[in-house]
UniProtKB/TrEMBL annotation:
SUPFAM superfamilies: 2Fe-2S ferredoxin-like. Transmembrane segments: none annotated. This is Putative sarcosine oxidase subunit alpha. Gene3D superfamilies: 2Fe-2S iron-sulphur cluster binding domain, sarcosine oxidase, alpha subunit, N-terminal domain (3.10.20.440). The lineage of its organism: Bacteria, Pseudomonadati, Pseudomonadota, Alphaproteobacteria, Hyphomicrobiales. It comes from Nitratireductor indicus C115. GO terms for molecular function: iron-sulfur cluster binding; oxidoreductase activity. Keywords: Oxidoreductase.
Length: 91
């Protein structure tokens, strides 16, 4: 596991990531959730290189995903919500 939360007693929510149900802690970012679940690759470049959360503060745009049908959302700046649907840019 790459990241661990300090307070695992926080309420949990359910997300759908690429069709699979994933559990997240209320208030954490989408990027933190993806990293914790070993789903760090969020997209591929046109040349096929893997990209994912890098700076975790919104400066690099490497972590963009589709959330609830909206494309190019920065996972590091977006808090999870129960029932959120996330699609990573992977084939």
């Amino acid at each position: 596991m790459l990241l661990r939360t300090i307070d695992e007693s926080r309420p949990r929510v359910q997300l759908i990531v690429d069709g699979a149900t994933v559990e997240a802690f209320e208030g954490e970012t989408v990027a933190a959730c993806l990293l914790r679940h070993d789903m760090a690759v969020t997209r591929l470049t046109p040349s096929g290189r893997k990209r994912g959360p890098y700076c975790l503060m919104g400066a690099c745009f490497e972590c963009v995903v589709e959330i609830d049908g909206k494309a190019n959302v920065q996972a590091c700046l977006t808090a999870v919500c129960d029932g959120m649907s996330i699609r990573r840019g992977l084939p």
